[in-house]
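To the wet lab folks,

You asked to see what we're planning to order before we commit. Fair enough. Below is the target structure as tokens, and below that is the sequence we designed to fit it. If anything looks off to you, flag it before the synthesis order goes out.
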């Protein structure tokens, strides 16, 4: 049986609970990608971020897990995509997941589809992980991951 896990919060959580969930689910070597309507920001998961509380959605990720959040009312809905098992505070969705890890390529600095340039550090190797419903063989989620050399 695979250790792949897809889980959600059953009800929106507050900002402090979101920060605790990020800290619990994503390693200190991870990154966070924050999205506002007018800009995006990529920074280390442990870096202080002015305006984090105004960010309507984002994701934090490391080699094995991606945690996504989106503001709903005064709280946040959370989705965890994990290659290394679940989290006791999140409810599993789906029964059996298969994963496939692939390399990813970032957009060039001249890409015009984003309102502002996305600065990606040169030492950050990005990859993707497909989460495939084993029953239907359909890709349901694609998670970002930090690639370790050789993975």
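Sequence we intend to order:
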């Amino acid at each position: 049986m695979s250790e792949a896990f897809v889980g959600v919060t059953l009800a929106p959580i507050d900002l402090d609970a979101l920060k605790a969930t990020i800290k619990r689910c994503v390693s200190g070597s991870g990154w966070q990608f924050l999205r506002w309507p007018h800009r995006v920001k990529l920074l280390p998961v442990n870096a202080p971020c002015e305006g984090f509380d105004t960010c309507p959605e984002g994701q934090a990720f490391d080699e094995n897990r991606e945690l996504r959040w989106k503001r709903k009312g005064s709280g946040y809905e959370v989705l965890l995509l994990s290659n290394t098992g679940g989290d006791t505070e999140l409810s599993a969705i789906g029964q059996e997941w298969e994963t496939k890890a692939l390399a990813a390529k970032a957009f060039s600095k001249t890409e015009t589809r984003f309102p502002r340039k996305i600065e990606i550090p040169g030492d950050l190797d990005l990859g993707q992980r497909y989460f495939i419903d084993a029953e239907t063989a359909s890709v349901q989620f694609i998670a970002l991951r930090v690639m370790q050399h050789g993975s």
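Structural context that might help your review: The chain has one domain: 5-146. The chain has a mean pLDDT of 88.

Thanks,
Computational group
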